[in-house]
Design a protein that fits this description.
This protein is mainly beta. It has 1 helix and 6 strands, in the order E-E-H-E-E-E-E. It has one domain. Strands 1-2 form a two-stranded antiparallel ribbon. Strands 3-4 form a two-stranded antiparallel ribbon. The chain is globular and about 55 Å long. It starts with 10 loop residues before the first strand and ends in a 10-residue tail after the last strand.
């Protein structure tokens, strides 16, 4: 079963400009109001770390360049 890909709203990624140096991978633009609203509506994707809530994203490279998805991996304990 393939997991659903979840894209955070309020974040846009653009490939680097051809005139930029090789160490530049691209640009990320965050619209705070859209992103914070998306986070408020998607609390199930937040993890606890040292008493703080965090959103873990994966940085991927596809046909159209770099993009972000929500990392939904949850460690489960295996019982033998």
């Amino acid at each position: 079963m393939k997991k659903e890909t979840i894209y955070p709203r309020g974040m846009r990624v653009f490939p680097k400009n051809e005139k930029q140096p090789d160490f530049v991978l691209g640009s990320l633009i965050i619209t705070p109001t859209d992103f914070s609203q998306w986070v408020a509506e998607n609390q199930q994707y937040l993890n606890d770390y040292n008493g703080s809530k965090q959103l873990k994203l994966q940085i991927l490279n596809g046909d159209k360049g770099i993009y972000f998805t929500v990392d939904t991996y949850k460690k489960t304990e295996t019982v033998f």
